[in-house]
Amino acid sequence: MDTSRRRFLQQTVTLAGAAAVAGCSRFTSGPAAQSASSLSKLRVLSIGVIGTIGGHDRKSIAAHPQAEIVGLCDVDANALAESAKDHPSAFTCADYREAFATHADKFDAVIVATPDHSHCTIMTAALAANKHVYGQKPLVQQLEELDLLERAAKAKPHLVTQTGAQRIEHAARRAAVDILKSGGLGKVVEVHVTYGGGALGGGFYFADGKLGDPVQPPAGFDYNLWLCGNAEEPCRPQMVQRQWRSWFNYGGGQIADWVVHTTDVLFYAFPELQSPTQVCTRTPSRDLRYFHADKVLSTLTYPVNSDKFAGSTCNFYFYDSGMMPERANIGLGEGKWPSGICTIVVCEGGTLVLAPEGPLEVWREGKMIDGMTWPGLPKYESFNHWHAWVDKALGKDTPHLWMPFTIGLRCTEPGLLAVKAAKFPGQVLNWDRRRLEFTNHAEANKTLVRRAYRKGFEPVRM
């Protein structure tokens, strides 16, 4: 890095940090501080412009007639150049801190579609700077970050947040919410969630679990910025750009990657489900220094004080790597699963089975009916998940902002607990969300709850 650029970035860190601590007063006099109803167009900065979902997020939001992508930020110079073809007037930068320090008056809202380990740092910076935030899932990568991002969102109630949980667009998911809320299947007994693949499946999104020797980062890729708050370590094969999901320090494997898509209907239907108090993960994997575990079976216990549940606790069972529960044990007759990824809610009066985009099955006494024929369901209108966020940020009333960060964080928590508890396979860990502490396991507290952030890349604490 040349001396002038290093000096600029040091100044950028100082300015951004001072602004955050001071409530970002240097950013609040421009359009970003205006009330939502006074905005005629939402000016959006896209951080993580292509990646695995960033390009789709950016293009979907840009398609709204009252949204404009005015800024592009990415550590990959090639991705930045490619996305700039779609938005030739947008400013560009590699460092998110530069965007907030020198361009904050040009945008009102931010898309954060970066690797998981950088989510909390960037999202809290955006909220501190008074920007609406569309944040990709999982919202955070560390358990402590559940609290950091929650506090940041609560400190800025006038800002509109949305989690990247777009599958609620499908009518089957909304119908599942209505059926569960109605109590028509009786009290909930337990929940099973299957995740299809595993963290070490290889291919486009995941690594294969084989640790390669250090390599040079891809050409045009700023690896130092990609590390964000993580400790410095060498770049390796199957690490940056897409397959970071498999790495313990950067992603959350298949479970944390999909958990908002699979548990959303539970948290929409049952606000009494807050935080689990126990987690126990079983896996044959033992060396988790670099990669997440494979063949994970995790049990999470939620306390419930509600007549909608059969007991005082409700267990969630998570399965990855193609594992599935025994159909007969959960009230299902013979048949094929609608998908390798399913949300299965076992109730006293029947079992609900939901694939990510449907179909929705309801089973009673070994026989299945199409859940969309459930009596009394409304006609579900079509809507655009991304546009609902834009509309709300512009001050328009919409019923379709389904997953603000308050709900998104509740969906994220069980996924993080399940994959992190794999470091202590077969051990029951007692979790206290308020204290951010495993009350029965000192080593788990030391290794699973938080990270030490590199100077200049810390989340904003509000």
| Proportion of residues in helical segments | 25-40%
Mean pLDDT: 93
**Number of DSSP helical runs:** 12
Based on the structure given, which CATH architecture of the largest domain is correct? 2-Layer Sandwich
SSE pattern = HEHEHEHEHEHEHEHHEEEEEEEHHEEH
| Number of extended strands | 16
Shape: globular
Low-confidence stretches: 1-33
Please identify the oligomeric state: single chain
Find the structural class using helix and strand composition: alpha/beta
Beta-strand content estimate? 15-25%
How far is the N terminus from the C terminus?
A: 32 Å
Q: Quickly count the domains.
A: 2
| Rg (C-alpha, Å) | 22 Å
- CATH topology type of the largest domain: Dihydrodipicolinate Reductase, domain 2
The CATH superfamily of the largest domain turns out to be: Dihydrodipicolinate Reductase, domain 2
The first-level CATH class of the largest domain is given as: Alpha Beta
Spatially, the strands of the biggest sheet line up as 14-13-12-11-7-10-9-8-15-16
For the sheet with most strands, the description reads: 10 strands, mixed
